[in-house]
Amino acid sequence: MMAGISASRKGGSVLIVEKNLKLGRKVLVTGNGRCNVTNRYADKSHYYGASPDFVEKVLSYFDQRQVMKFFENLGVLLKEEDNGRIFPRTNQAKTIVNALTEELEAKKVRIILGNPVRHLIKEKNLFQVKLQNSEEFIAAKIILTTGGKASEQCGTTGDGYAWAANFGHRITALYPALVPLETDERWPKAVQGLKLEAKISVTIGERVLAEKSGDVLFTHYGLSGLAVLALAGKAAPFLTEHKVKVHLDLFPEETHKNLDRKIAKIFDLNGKKSVKNSLAGAAPSNFIPIFLSNLRINPDKKAAEISKKERLKISAGFKNIVLAVSRARPFKEAQVTAGGVDANEIDPATMESKIVPGLYLAGEILDVDADSGGYNLQWAWSSGYLAGVSASK
Question: Which DSSP category does 274 fall into?
Fold first, then answer.
């Protein structure tokens, strides 16, 4: 939609072919239906896959300030929430989709819905496009904005990768990102729905792949929550050949020694209580019995009867709850795709293919993914805008 608008504003004759029955289906589910349009702090540090220089150059042509101005000029009032996240004031993603759709109509962009592309080739400097209903088109320029494989229920089933590969492009390995993780341990099911704040580390042996602080949500299959989703893409590439582990530090602000001192004081003051009840102020009450059982400590044991060795085990446990990752949840539960068309084969000044003149690529089809918080949509707006402007020349 952004590519179509920017191309039409530059005088291009634009046709959008959308296999879904309506435009913006995936936008409608972003931000839990509220659409986290962008982020005030969007910069290259929040992006992965392609080189930071590539991402930075593309973002610079249509950055978050320009995106906010773009939507405000379409009549969309915006608001800023925590961590720089920008939303429409209506709190409805359809506000964004409607604004884009109306602008496409105003620019007389032709739109074909519910008719997937089945054939795409280039012959004699022109692209030939054949649709499912056998309708055919000839075009001088093509912009591929087919998305990745994440949230396939929204129509993003990876079609564009095959077309890009047929044109000679390299497709890097594809993994679900911003996705929950399944664990070997089954105990999270007993506290499913419980959310904790923690510092999370993802490791292979002694190697730390990534760290993040934030929410951890226990589920029937393992772990979710914003911080877990943020780290999943870093773990996914290693899961087939390595044993990846997740470490939860529930008290990152405390050293082990200081935490143990505080727990010792709690036990001294609450010696007649069970250890599970005496620790009720340290962690949620439904979590404590399972936590203690995993440490092989009887939750009903009196606090005064806890040995120093057991107490040290408890304080160390709070600082390092370890779970083994069995796999990432499937693409249909992922918010974005990690991997895609190799960005080294794309000109960051135009989004044009370095292999096939006249072919432009934008959005999630490229090997670019980002943190949660509006950064992935910012990539869609920036790359789509640049591709549309460039293709219209």
Answer: B
Distance CA 265, CA 316 (A): 16
Q: How far apart are CA 43 and CA 52, in angstroms?
A: 9
Q: Which residues contact 190 (CB under 8 A, 6 or more apart)?
A: 290
**What local confidence, expressed as pLDDT, does residue 365 receive?**
98
Contact indicator for 101, 23 with CB cutoff of 8 Å: yes
The 10s digit of each residue's pLDDT in 205-247 is: 999 999 999 999 999 999 999 999 999 988 988 998 899 999 9
Please, what is the Cα angle at 254 between 253 and 258, to 5 degrees? Answer: 160
For residue 17 the two structure tokens come to 């072919």
What type of residue is 169?
H
Q: Rounded distance, CA 22 to CA 33, Å? A: 16
Chain mean position to CA 103: 27
Indicate the pLDDT class of residue 152, thresholds 50, 70 and 90.
Answer: confident
Distance CA 249, CA 230 (A): 16
The model's pTM is 0.91
Taking each helix axis as running N to C, give the angle between helix 375-391 and helix 2-9, from 0 to 180 degrees, rounded to the nearest 10: 30
Confidence of residue 309 (pLDDT cuts 50, 70, 90): very high
Domains of the chain, each with CATH number or no CATH: 2-175+331-391 (3.50.50.60), 180-328 (1.10.8.260)
Distance in angstroms (rounded) separating the CA atoms of residues 23 and 340: 23
144 neighbors 158 (Cβ within 8 angstroms)? no
Q: Measured on CA atoms in the order 334, 378, 48, 347, is the torsion positive or negative?
A: positive
Alpha-carbon distance 173 to 178, whole Å? Answer: 16
Instruction: Please compute, for residue 155, the number of CA atoms within 13 A of its CA located in the half-sphere on the CB side.
Output: 21
| Rg of the chain taking only CA atoms, in angstroms | 25
- Which has the closest alpha carbon to 26: 148, 117, 111, 159? 148
156 to 18, 21, 27, 148: CA distances (angstroms): 11, 13, 12, 6
| Bridge partner residues of 361 (DSSP) | 144
Strand pairing class (359-361; 85-88): unpaired
Q: How far is CA 241 from each of CA 238, 244, 247, 339, rounded to the nearest angstrom?
A: 6, 9, 19, 18
Element (H, E) at 8: helix 2-9
How, if at all, do strands 181-183 and 321-328 pair?
antiparallel
Q: Residue 214, Cβ neighbours under 10 Å: how many?
A: 16
